[in-house]
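In the design runs reported in the main text, the only information available to the sequence generator was the tokenized backbone. The following block is the verbatim input for one such run; it is reproduced so that readers can re-run the procedure and compare outputs position by position.
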């Protein structure tokens, strides 16, 4: 068990869905379980997530974001990391850029998960113009965590389905790093049909690494949020980029595997909660 003299604090800027595990209902428990204090700045409140569920309620909280930010600023609250996920508008992108400028300090980490699409398709609420706005946000990040669809959108390139080649993945990693972030973690990577994982690139060392696990059949909502939250939790607990990515791959895959074996409705999200014991062991917290 680790002894800590300083508890890390994260500002998590995401929407919150009352049902269906994603965004803040994933980020908060994962980061908290890893011993990290998490301050939530919600961008919207939904009754459920939007994947495969109709009739959901939606309340936009854009007008509340700036006052929350200003209150935190007035209190002088420092953050060890800032973590952004789904952002619903250009206005929210601009507010988050201001948040970065306001709360950036020496040694803290800005992680952007550029949530825009999957499986080669933009989410229906977004346009290619929004992808350009997300690109500008990624330029301010220390680390970005796109999937292959989002990577293509950020680079304004056609989406390429897998299996991939090492040359293609490493080219994508370098081009994404050229946008500005020091580190890139690319998810949804596979070279063989029975594997799935992530590729990492650190611009300061020019190192490319991979973390894979056996692929589980099916498509599961919220897994990108599970992965990014676990990645950040590991980074803030002192792990290297590839070490953190490997922990996040294992945690996400185990959560998916448990959900698959239970034959849970895919719309409900994955059972990450029962994966915590192994996750905390990997983090060396227990």
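Verbatim output:
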């Amino acid at each position: 068990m680790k002894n800590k003299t300083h508890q890390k604090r994260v500002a998590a800027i995401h929407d919150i869905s009352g049902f269906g595990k994603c965004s803040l209902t994933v980020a908060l428990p994962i980061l908290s379980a890893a011993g990290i204090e998490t301050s939530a700045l919600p961008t919207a409140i939904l009754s459920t997530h939007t994947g495969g569920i109709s009739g959901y309620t939606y309340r936009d909280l854009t007008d509340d974001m700036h006052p929350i930010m200003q209150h935190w600023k007035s209190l002088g609250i420092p953050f060890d990391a800032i973590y952004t996920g789904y952002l619903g508008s250009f206005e929210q992108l601009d507010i988050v850029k201001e948040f970065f400028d306001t709360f950036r300090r020496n040694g803290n980490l800005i992680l952007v998960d550029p949530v825009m699409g999957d499986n080669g398709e933009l989410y229906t609420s977004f346009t290619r113009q929004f992808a350009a706005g997300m690109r500008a946000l990624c330029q301010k990040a220390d680390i970005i965590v796109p999937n292959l669809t989002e990577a293509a959108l950020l680079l304004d390139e056609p989406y390429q389905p897998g299996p991939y080649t090492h040359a293609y993945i490493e080219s994508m990693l370098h081009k994404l790093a050229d946008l500005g972030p020091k580190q890139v973690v690319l998810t949804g990577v596979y070279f063989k049909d029975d594997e799935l994982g992530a590729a990492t690139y650190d611009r300061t060392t020019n190192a490319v690494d991979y973390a894979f696990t056996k692929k589980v059949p099916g498509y599961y909502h919220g897994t990108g949020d599970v992965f990014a939250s676990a990645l950040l939790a590991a980074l803030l607990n002192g792990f290297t980029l590839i070490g953190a990515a490997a922990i996040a791959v294992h945690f996400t895959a185990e959560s998916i595997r448990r959900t698959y074996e239970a034959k849970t409705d895919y719309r409900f999200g994955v059972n990450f909660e029962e994966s915590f014991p192994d996750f905390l062991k990997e983090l060396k917290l227990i």
